[in-house]
Amino acid sequence: MGQFNLYDLLEKELNKEQRDAVTFFGEPLLIIAPAGSGKTKVITYKIAYLIDKYKITPSKIVALTFTNKAAEEMKERVQLLLPEKGKYVITSTFHSFAVRLLRKYAAILGYKPNFSIYDANDSEMVIKKLLKEMNLDVDPKIIASAFSYRKNSTITDDSYAFDIYDGFFKDEMHGKLYSNYINYCKSHNIMDFDDLLLNLLEILTRNEDEFKSAALDITSNVQYLLVDEYQDTNVVQYNLILELLGKNRNITVVGDDDQGIYSFRGSTVKNILRFEKDFKDCKIINLEKNYRSSEVILHAAHAVIKHNKVRKDKIMKTNIPGGSKITVFEAQSSEEEAMFVYENINNLLFKDGIRYKDIAILYRNNHLSRAFEELFIIKDVRHKVWGGYNFYAREEIRDISSYLFTILNPFDEVSLIRVINTPRRGIGSKCVEKLIKASLEYEIHIFEVMQSLFDNQAKSFSLFDNYFTNSEKDSIRGFYRLITDYQKKFLSNQNFASTFNELISEINYLDYIKNQNDDKNFEKKIGYIESFISSLYNYQNQESANIYDIASRIRLLMSSDQQEQEEDCINLMTIHSAKGLEFKVVFIVAAEEGIIPSQKIVSEEEFEEERRLFYVAMTRSKMHLFISYCNNRSKFGKKFDCFPSRFIDEIPEEDIQNYDKTVDITITTDEITSIKNMLINKKGSS
C-alpha cells in the first residue's frame, strides 16, 4: 500500500485523537483507551504507519497482547493494510513471544531446545505426584495457584508466598515443595507457563557474558515495541517490557487504568499509572470518543468510575446520542430476578435486530448463574455459560446430587460408587473393587452385597465375609445404614431441603470440601451448595412436588448440554470473562453489597478494583442496560437480607428508570409436563 493510500485511510477511518496516536513518533507514547474507543484499530494503523512512513523493519516490530485471539486479529488487520510487509510483523502473546526466543537461548539456562511446556493441568499432575511423595494431602490446584502467584509477583520469601494458604503446611514444608517442583521441572526439561516469562527475563538480566550476548541479540531485534492492555501487566511482564527495550525508547503502550481488574492474577494497575515516571519525556494521548455505548450508559458509567481516587482523569464522549435509560430492579428472590431477566429478554428480542447472541447476563461469581440456567432450561431458551461449567456439572453439585440419586435408587451404581467414599469413610478403591467382584460373581447388585453384610441373615451369601477385612465390613455397614436411614426420611418427610441439609451435615461434607480447598475456593463451593439447597426449597413448595420429580428435574438439568452447541444463544458469564466483549443488551445481576463490592474487600485499593469491575460490566452494553439485585437470598434454607450495591447509588438519577411491574415466577403445569417429556425422551434415546 502506498503512502498516499494510507494517509487517505487515516483521514477517513480515524478521528483526530486516533490519528495523533498513530502518527506520533520519536518518544515513548501512552495511549489511554477507554472502553469502545477503537484501540485495536489504532494499534494496527500505527504498525502500518511505522513501516510505511518511518521504514521500520516489519520483523523488528513487536506487538504484545494477552490472548491468541487478540494477537491473530491484530495480525490480520495489519496484513489488510500492508499485505506483503504486514506478515512479517510479530504480533504475539507474551508467552508465545517468550517461547520463540527460549527455543533459541534456553541452553544457557540448562534446558534443551526441545523443552516441554506444561499448562495448568500438567503442572497439577506434577504437584500431585510431589505431594504424594511428601505425604501431604492437599488439592494440587491450590498449590499450583500459589506457585503461579509467587512467580508472577516475583516473591522469593517462602512463608510470604504461602501465607494465603495457611493451614495446609508446616513452615518448613513451604520452600521444600516449591524447590522440589522447580527441580522436577528442570530435570525433566519442562517449563510451565510462568517459567516462560521468568526464564526469558533471567536471560535478559543476568550479568554473565553469555547472557549479555543473548540479551544484546534479542534487544537489537526489537526496533519498536507495542503493548496492548498495559493495565493488565504483572511485575514480570513489566520488567520484561523494560528489558526488551534495551537502550531503545521506541515504545507505545495502550490501556485504560479504569479497566484494571486482574490483581488476583498478579496484574497491577500501578504499571500504567507510573508510565510517566518510567519515561519522563513521554507523550500521553487520550482516545476520548466511545463508539460502543449510548450517551446514557456512558454518562452513568463515567459517573461511577469518577469516584475512584487513584486513576487518570479522562473525558469520555459518545458517538451514539441519547439512548434508553438504565433499568434498575429490586427482586424478592433469585427466582424473581431470573424471571425479570427472562421477561425483558422476551420484550427486546428481535427488536432493533436484537438476537439471542446480542444479550449477556453478567455476574460477579459463577454460582450466581444457577437460577438463570434453570429458568432458561425450563423455558427452552438458548443459552451458553462461559468460563465455567454448567451449574449442575460442578463436582460438589454432582457429589451431593449423587447422594440423592443413590438414596432414591441404590441400584444406580454410578452414583453409588461416586459417593461411597466421599467424604472418606474407609471404603477405598480396593474395597470398591472387592464389592464389584462380589456382585459380579454372585450376579447381584453392589447394594445387595452391602445389605448382606449388614444383616447377615441370608446364609447363601455368607462367603462375603471372606471378601473384606473387619474394618471394611464396618465401613460398608455404616454407609448402608446411612443410605437406608435417609430413604425413610425422604419418603416420610415433605421438607426435602431440610432433610438434605441434615444429610450434608451428618456426612460432614462441608468439612470435607474445606479440607480440600483454600478459603477462596471453599467459599465458592459453599455458594454453589447454598444455591442448590435453595433450589430444593423452591421445588418442594411447588404444587404436587415429590422427591422423585425433583431428582428427575436435577438429572435433566445436569445432562443439559445442548446450549454449548448453539451459536445464537444468550451469554451467561462472569464480569471478568466479559472483559473485551460487547453486547447490545446487558443484564448486571446480583448487584448487591457483599457480592459487588465483595465482602472480602479489606483495602481501599481492592475496593477501587471492585468499582472498576462494575464499570467494566456497565461498558459492555451498547444499547440497553439492566441492573438487578435481590432484597433477600437463601442460604441453606435461611433467608438473609440483602442490600443494593453502593455502586448503583453512584449512577445519576436522570440515567435510571425503576422497574415496578409485577413479575410472575410461576412455572406452569405445561412446562412441568414438558420437562418430564424431555427427560423421558432423553432416557429413550440413551
Summary keywords:
alpha/beta, Rossmann fold, 4 domains, seven-stranded parallel sheet, six-stranded parallel sheet, 30 helices
Give me the number of helical elements.
30
The percent range for helix content is 40-55%
Beta-strand content: 5-15%
Structural class: alpha/beta
Counted beta strands: 19
Rg measurement, Å: 29 Å
User: From the 3D coordinates, which CATH architecture of the largest domain would you assign?
Assistant: 3-Layer(aba) Sandwich
CATH class of the largest domain: Alpha Beta
Query: Please, what is the CATH homologous superfamily of the largest domain?
Result: P-loop containing nucleotide triphosphate hydrolases
Main sheet record: 7 strands, parallel
Query: End-to-end span in angstroms?
Result: 58 Å
Strand order of the largest sheet: 13-14-12-15-16-11-19
Question: What's the number of domains?
Answer: 4
- Tell the overall outline: globular
CATH topology of the largest domain: Rossmann fold
Parts with pLDDT < 50 across at least 5 consecutive residues: 159-170, 561-566, 682-686
Brief overview:
With 686 residues, the chain is of the alpha/beta class.
Description:
- There is one protein chain.
- By secondary structure, the chain is α/β, with parallel strands linked by helices.
- The protein folds into four domains: 6-107 and 206-287, Rossmann fold, CATH 3.40.50; 116-188; 317-388 and 566-658, P-loop containing nucleotide triphosphate hydrolases (Rossmann fold, 3-Layer(aba) Sandwich), CATH 3.40.50; 393-559, Orthogonal Bundle (PCRA, domain 4).
- It is 51% helix and 12% strand.
- The chain contains 30 helices and 19 strands.
- The strands form five sheets. A seven-stranded parallel sheet has the order 13-14-12-15-16-11-19. The chain has a six-stranded parallel sheet with strand order 3-2-6-7-1-8, sandwiched between helices. A two-stranded parallel sheet has the order 4-5.
- It starts with a helix and ends with a helix.
